[in-house]
Write a structure and sequence with these properties.
This is V-type proton ATPase subunit a. It is a multi-pass membrane protein. The chain has 849 residues and is an alpha+beta fold. The chain is 58% helix and 7% strand. It is built from 29 helices and eleven strands. It is flat, with a radius of gyration of 42 Å.
Length: 849
């Protein structure tokens, strides 16, 4: 809990790694994920560093692995379970892995190219077969298919000749030629028009569509094709026709001159196609065997290459000592993990067989350390909510432990419904129970991953919604009468207030709690169920929820202001307690804390008997600022004097908040210098960073923090800028004072969204379920089934998903703006340890794993 509240204490350390054991030591650190490396060669270009060639080899192996994974995925071969976590291979084994991958790539490439060549030949033979079969009747057509022919004015007698063969064409005195092939169906109309325009009628085009789909050799997709036969006269026309066919990417095949030749070609094609099918089947079997063998080791190779590349990248961040025999690395490390770091270096030295062990040495630093907050699977989601606002400054108070309770509670205040909370809790509990299921964890659906990563947040929101649903006594817009109502109708008749004539003459009746026996006491838990029947239910709940929202908001903001004291004390800025914290708290409590006091006072003092004479709190609160009270009955004796006193205190706290801190710091850096010398602060020579680091625990000057001490010696010696400090404090004062008003009003969203959720739920029940429940016939039972299905779908989609998302976003805003800005700066740098498990993978990004 201590590390979650404030984060881990960090230190800067130097690693002295022997050249022979540096690879193994960094491999051990990558497995543990303890340290964050700093770049000691910022001025050196990435391509000029020592291990750039090794990184290029790793990238070449990654390219081969991407090729293998794509082929495996294309062959629909299942990869083995990814439970293995092999260690990074030694530099000696890298060459063996590289050669193995290259041999596999060459073999796979040859087999794949042979397969593609066979498939292309098979496609060509299949197209040729279709062309011969369909074009059999193109030259000798039957009379009933004449409308499909193309007629030309140059040879009108051809329309009457139903049997045109080669011998009859010779009588025209021209050389007749044929071009046949296949073209995509989408291009045939443009192809026909182009032939007519270019060839001026010296061609005859006949075509027919192939019944089955054929594969496009360029895209691999099935397409519809058309077989065509072009008869032309003259060699020049033939050349033009061939050029047009090339432009439209037609597949041309030789056309036989006689039926005997056609039959011989078809028979030869049938034999060749059968042989190609046999060879292609054996090639695919062999290719599958190669891919299955590769799939057994491909994930191991992927992990090893990823680790190797990461290790060499880290080695490029290190620098050599003057002897070039030792690598020096600088790392940020949690103080509590220093023993683990030493053991990891010892293990790496042992594995490499180095005679000189590697070691670690803590060094003083003037830089601000990164922030590390350890989380588990439960707290990680809430920490992500805080980090989305900003990573915490080093060692400042972390809002996440308090967000675990306040965030789902404020969500539930806006979402309070027992039925909806149960549905949400069951859904989240299902995700929690099956959180180790790989199908749920490893999906590529970003929306689902968002829900799954926040399963514990959803579970807490659902549980708190059940609680607030019981408080509101609201379950799918209906109330539950568990303990029995505290109101009695019978007492109104016994007292003679209600009679039969009164009931018949009034559409609405009022229960008077002043009548003995009508009100027997409050409902044990939440709102009395009788309010669900009352016509003034909305008025009552509006008043209740609005006051509740103001009370929760003031408590939440006051708690945020109080948390700032932990930062002031830890960073040894005690003057902030008197000059910042105290004025802020007085301003907030003297105005808005007094408003909460008046709400509770009115609830406790005024009963049902004199509730009609209770004054308006809003009027009293306005008169408090105007310092007027005439004509309005007071809540209690001495109210006017107390209100004037509170306003004066709140007004006086503003100049203290505005001027107190800048004036004190100015005195501290100028008038208090001699006092500092007397107290011995000048013993620290600011030119020596090491002495400043060693003496900071005993001689820390009041007004400086841990982050101040992490600044450079030059910064410490800078002159104090009063104007800059005053401007900063003026902005903070204006923002805080105005923010107290706007933030208090902002918490009214709790009331508004709670009202909207309850009204939507009531409208959905009235317009859907009530229609089905009112049908009391046999048909009504059957009609109730689709009605309930519609009600369930609308409840989940509108009330749970849309309203839940709305309440989530509003609760997020209340924490970021109204709560966290009272004490949380969020200007830190997140600790990013070197860990193999956290490294991004291009294979997973491309969907190959």
């Amino acid at each position: 809990m201590g590390t979650l509240l404030r984060g881990e204490e960090m230190c800067l350390a130097q690693l002295f790694l022997q050249s022979g054991s540096a690879y193994d030591c960094i491999s051990e650190l990558g497995e543990l994920g303890l340290v964050e490396f700093r770049d000691l060669n910022p001025s050196v270009n990435v391509f000029q560093r020592k291990h750039v060639n090794e990184i290029k080899k790793c990238e070449e192996m990654e390219r081969i692995l991407v090729y293998l994974l794509r082929e495996i995925k294309k062959a629909d071969i299942h990869l083995p379970d990814r439970d293995v976590n092999p260690a990074a291979p030694s530099p000696k084994n890298v060459i063996a892995i590289m050669e193995q991958l290259q041999r596999l790539e060459v073999e796979l490439g040859e087999v794949t190219r042979n397969k593609e060549r066979l498939q292309k030949n098979l496609l060509e033979l299949t197209e040729y077969t279709h062309m011969l079969r369909i074009s059999r009747n193109f030259v000798q057509r039957t009379a009933e298919r004449e409308p499909l022919q193309v007629h030309y004015e140059e040879f009108p007698f051809l329309e009457k000749d139903t049997a045109m063969d080669y011998n009859s064409m010779q009588r025209l005195g021209a050389k007749l030629g044929f071009i046949s092939g296949l073209i995509q169906r989408a291009k045939i109309e443009a192809f026909e028009r182009m032939l007519w325009r270019v060839c001026k009628g010296f061609t005859i085009l006949s075509y027919a569509e192939v019944e089955e789909y054929l594969e496009d050799p360029d895209t691999g997709e099935p397409v519809k094709t058309v077989v065509f036969l072009i008869s032309y006269w003259g060699d020049q026309i033939g050349q033009k026709v061939k050029k047009i066919c090339d432009c439209y990417h037609c597949h041309l095949y030789p056309y036989p001159s006689s039926n005997e030749e056609r039959n011989d070609v078809v028979e030869g094609l049938r034999t060749r196609i059968q042989d190609l099918h046999t060879v292609l089947l054996r090639t695919e079997d062999y290719l599958k065997q190669v891919l299955i063998k590769a799939s057994e080791s491909v994930y191991t190779w992927v992990v090893q290459v990823k680790k190797m590349k990461a290790i060499y990248y880290i080695l490029n961040l290190c620098s050599f000592d003057v002897t070039n025999k030792c690598l020096i690395a600088e790392v940020w490390c949690p103080v509590s993990d220093i023993p683990k770091l030493r053991r990891a270096l010892e293990e790496g030295s042992r594995k490499s067989g180095a005679t000189v062990p590697s070691f670690v040495n803590r060094i003083p630093t003037t830089d601000t350390p990164p922030t590390l907050i350890r989380t588990n699977k439960f707290t990680a989601g809430f920490q992500n909510i805080v980090d989305a606002y900003g990573v915490g400054t080093y060692r400042e108070v972390n809002p996440a432990p308090f967000t675990i309770i306040t965030f789902p509670f404020l969500f539930a205040v806006m979402f309070g419904d027992l039925g909806h909370g149960i549905i949400m809790s069951v859904f989240a509990l299902w995700m929690v129970l099956y959180e180790n299921n790989r199908k749920l964890k490893n999906t590529r659906n970003e929306i689902w991953n968002t829900f799954f990563e926040g399963r514990y947040i959803i579970l807490m929101m659902g549980l708190f919604s059940i609680y607030t649903g019981l408080i509101y006594n609201d379950c799918f817009s209906k109330s539950l009468n568990i303990f029995g109502s505290g109101w009695s109708v019978n007492a109104m008749f016994k007292a003679g207030v209600w009679t039969n004539e009164v009931i018949r003459g009034n559409h609405l009746l009022t229960l008077d709690p002043n009548v003995t026996g009508v009100f027997r006491g409050p409902y044990p838990l939440g709102i009395d169920p009788i309010w669900n029947l009352a016509s003034n239910r909305l008025t009552f709940l509006n008043s209740y929820k609005m006051k509740m929202s103001v009370i929760l908001g003031i408590i939440h903001m006051s708690f945020g202001v109080i948390l700032s004291t932990y930062n002031h004390l830890y960073f040894r800025k005690k003057y902030n307690l008197y000059l910042v914290f105290l004025p802020e708290l007085l301003f907030l409590l003297c105005l808005f804390g007094y408003l909460v006091f008046m709400i509770f006072y009115k609830w406790l003092v005024y009963s049902a008997k004199d509730s009609r004479h209770a004054p308006s709190i809003l009027i009293h609160f306005i008169n408090m600022f105007l310092m007027q009270g005439d004509g309005v009955p007071p809540l209690y004796p001495g109210q006017t004097g107390l209100q004037v006193f509170l306003v004066v205190i709140a007004v006086l706290s503003v100049p203290v908040l505005l001027l107190g801190k800048p004036v004190y710091l100015y005195w501290l850096h100028n008038g208090g210098r001699r006092l500092g010398m007397y107290r011995g602060y000048e013993r620290v020579r600011r030119g020596s960073e090491e002495e400043l680091y060693l003496l900071r625990g005993d001689d820390m000057e009041e007004g400086s923090s841990h982050s101040d001490l992490s600044s450079s010696g030059e910064r410490c010696s800078e002159e104090f800028d009063f104007a800059d400090e005053f401007l900063h404090q003026a902005i903070h004062t204006i923002e805080y004072c105005l923010g107290c008003v706007s933030n208090t009003a902002s918490y009214l969203r709790l009331w508004a969204l709670s009202l909207a959720h309850a009204q939507l739920s009531e409208v959905l029940w009235a317009m859907v379920m009530r229609v089905g429940l009112r049908m009391d016939t046999t048909l009504g039972v059957l009609f109730l089934v689709p009605v309930f299905g519609l009600f369930a779908v609308l409840t989940v989609s509108i009330l749970l998903v849309m309203e839940g998302l709305s309440a989530f976003l509003h609760a997020l805003r209340l924490h970021w703006v109204e709560f966290q800005n009272k004490f949380y700066s969020g200007t830190g740098i997140k600790f990013c340890p070197f860990s193999f498990s956290l490294l991004p993978s291009s294979f997973e990004h491309d969907g190959l794993l």
